[in-house]
Design a protein that fits this description.
With 506 residues, the protein is of the alpha+beta class. The protein has two domains: 257 residues, Rossmann fold; 167 residues, Galactose-binding domain-like (Jelly Rolls, Sandwich). It contains seven helices and 26 strands. Strands 15-12-1-16-20-23-26 form a seven-stranded mixed beta sheet, covered by helices on one side. Strands 2-3-4-11-6-9 form a six-stranded antiparallel beta sheet, with no helix packed on it. Strands 5-10-7-8 form a four-stranded antiparallel beta sheet, with no helix packed on it. The protein is elongated and about 135 Å long.
Length: 506
């Protein structure tokens, strides 16, 4: 009875003490958890530049090489073995070629008597391959002339038309098959002891009256030829370059500031905006390119080292390949950069290099790595990115055909609900300046250079995007939007507020 009275007397006190013990036992853990949730995330970035020239890798052919460029297997698409009414013959030759036996070689030959020759061997290139608007095209061939074109005839009274000699040309046509213009090489007359190189260049630029839709390749001979003499064409090749204006002489396997300069521009802007090197993962391919100037007007002679501050490069040159990039994007790889990203963090991902929509054979784009000629597909990229759990992402894809790299089909973008995705183009070429020796005064890509300059001036993503796409590059009459049509997809709904000085802070 006494114990019951004590329980009734002291029971509430015991319960109170037990409750307080429990509260004080779990309060620190509760507060710790609460504070953790309230701690803002970090701002992190991955910057990738995987090339510094316009070729696959050092010593390899140019990036656009292939059946659309070399005609070793295209002989059936050129007119051959044709007897012309005025007595000359065009045929495939089995004579020794320039330096590649078995490649296309054509012969223009007159019969026994001298003849005035005026012929064109025409290949309808756009019947088989797409034409990229505003791309700079180059047609080249090696020519061997065994006679002197425009040799006076036997009868001195005969007046010889001047003739253009042996030459090659790019002929541009509109959709009505009307010739807009022909860009010719120099005409040569011979004779030669060996082979002579010819090239013709032109840009697939259009007007509202004559929109270029077709490209024909022309091998031509015009002039009086001695009977039985020949003109040979060999190693015929076409390639497209970027950017215009057309470089003179034609580009070679040389390094270029353009791609590394664009990556470094993003790096230094992020550093100026308070991003730490621990939170920036920079993969930079700059083999043999030890001096990179972003702009001519900023007074910085080498952006790898700005006023004694050296860019912290995490992975460079030969180690910048698809395997390493996919490893750093993989959250399940211990020590990878992606594995360090927390749910409250934000991520900026900027990628610049070559892109192609021909590698896979199905029109889907790939992102290229110069170091080992590897690539990452859009599906591989998406499957890695979608595993990253963070507050928000800004993804910039700066490659040719980039619009085809970030969507599943022509009508829907990848389902990345916490991302703003921006590409430098649709499914077309993206242009850049290979160095800063141009009227615009910067090395880097036409669209993203201006986009990041505007971001650095505290513009919102939407403002920066609109400014950059409406820029008219030096030497052009159309805007970047008209030339390559950059794309933006805002799955976060904050493109009109997200900047370096707004909330949330970029």
């Amino acid at each position: 009875m006494e114990s019951k009275k004590n329980l009734m007397k002291y029971g509430p006190l015991v319960v109170f003490i037990l409750i307080m013990v429990l509260i004080f036992s779990f309060l620190p853990l509760y507060l710790q958890t609460t504070r953790r949730e309230e701690i803002p995330g970090e701002r992190k970035a991955i910057i990738l530049c995987s090339a510094n020239d316009f070729y696959r890798k050092e010593g390899f052919p140019d990036f656009n090489n292939g059946e659309d460029a070399n005609f070793s297997t295209e002989t059936n698409r050129w007119p051959q073995f044709v007897d012309f009414p005025n007595g000359y013959i065009v045929q495939e030759s089995n004579l020794p070629g320039h330096d590649t036996p078995g490649f296309v070689q054509f012969i223009v030959k007159t019969p026994a008597t001298p003849k005035y020759v005026n012929m064109e061997l025409v290949y309808n290139w756009t019947k088989y391959y797409p034409l990229f608007k505003f791309a700079a095209y180059n047609l080249s061939a090696w020519v061997n002339i065994t006679t002197n074109i425009n040799t006076p005839p036997i009868n001195p009274a005969v007046i010889i038309p001047p003739g253009a000699g042996a030459r090659i040309g790019l002929r541009w046509l509109n959709s009505s098959n009307v010739v807009v213009r022909t860009d010719w090489s120099n005409g040569i007359f011979g004779p030669f002891a060996g082979w002579t190189f010819l090239n013709a260049t032109g840009i697939a630029n259009s007007s509202s009256i004559n929109e270029i839709t077709q490209l024909h390749l022309v091998l031509a001979v015009e002039g009086n030829m001695t009977g039985g003499e020949m003109v040979l064409f060999d190693d015929v090749k076409v390639e497209y370059w970027f950017p215009p204006p057309i470089p003179t002489p034609p580009p070679s396997n040389i390094n270029s500031d353009g791609f590394p300069a664009q990556a470094l521009q993003v790096y230094w802007i992020l550093k100026d905006q308070g991003y730490t090197d621990d939170n920036i993962f920079l993969m930079l391919y700059h083999t043999g390119d030890d001096v990179i100037d972003i702009e001519t007007s900023d007074g910085i002679p080498n952006d790898l080292n700005r006023s004694g501050v050296v860019a912290k490069i995490d992975v460079e040159n030969d180690d910048v390949n698809a395997s390493r990039f996919k490893q750093e994007l993989n959250i399940s790889v211990s020590g990878s950069f992606a594995s360090s990203i927390k749910s409250k963090d934000q991520l900026i991902l900027y990628m610049v290099d070559h892109g192609s929509n021909a590698v896979l054979g199905d029109g889907n784009a790939t992102f290229h790595f110069e170091a080992d000629d590897s690539y990452i597909t859009e599906l591989e990229f998406f499957n890695l990115i979608k595993q990253i759990n963070c507050e928000r992402m800004l993804i910039n894809i700066d490659i040719c055909f980039s619009g085809n790299f970030l969507h599943q089909d022509p009508y829907s973008w990848y389902d990345l609900p916490k991302a703003i995705l921006i590409t430098s183009s649709t499914d077309v070429l993206s242009w850049c300046w290979r160095n800063n020796n141009n009227a615009d005064g910067f090395a880097g890509t036409w669209f993203f250079h201006h986009f990041w300059v505007q971001l650095s001036q505290n513009r919102t993503i939407e403002e920066a995007f609109n400014y950059a796409k409406n820029w008219i590059p030096s030497g052009q009459v159309l805007t970047i939007n008209d030339i390559q049509s950059p794309l933006i997809q805002d799955n976060l709904g904050i493109k009109n507020t997200w900047s370096f000085n707004n909330t949330p802070q970029l």
